[in-house]
Amino acid sequence: MTSNIISNAAPTVSDINRAVLYLQNFPQMEFQVKHYFSPGIYQREIFMPAGSRVIGKIHATRHLNTIISGRVTLWTVYGRKELEGPCTFESMAGGQKVLLMHTDTICMTTHPNRN
């Protein structure tokens, strides 16, 4: 990934769409994922190795994200943040995240589960 894909400026939706198209040209990785369910809650824990880049899907609901361990750059339409675990942040409905893992990272997302 070139440095212009994750810049210091807050990206537009078009910037994120360009990043998605760019990163689709590279070999795709499968991550170790653990799933947890409790009444009304779904959690997904993901191990992402250093150097990996992730484009999150566009989610329908607001949800929480916790970086359990690791250091990442988070890029959303709300800006660019350098985050180090442990820390928690919120993703907004309709938003999409681009993550660059600087170290091996374990991240957990918590979603409402209506089932």
Give your account of this protein's structure:
It is a single chain. The chain has a 5-stranded antiparallel beta sheet, with no helix packed on it. Strands 3-8-5-6 form a 4-stranded antiparallel beta sheet, covered by helices on one side. With 115 residues, the protein is mainly beta. The protein contains 1 helix and 9 strands. The protein has one helix at 13-23; strands at 32-38, 41-48, 53-55, 63-69, 71-76, 79-84, 87-91, 98-101, 105-112.
Task: List descriptors.
mainly beta; 4-stranded antiparallel β-sheet; 1 helix; 9 strands; disordered N terminus; 115 residues
Low-pLDDT ranges: 1-6
Structural class: mainly beta
Query: How many β strands by DSSP?
Result: 9
Approximately how much beta-strand content do the residues carry? over 45%
Instruction: Write down the overall geometry.
Output: globular
Mean pLDDT: 87
Helix content: under 10%
Figure out the total of helices. Answer: 1
Strand order of the largest sheet: 1-2-9-4-7
**Helix and strand string, N-terminal first?**
HEEEEEEEEE
Main beta sheet, described? 5 strands, antiparallel
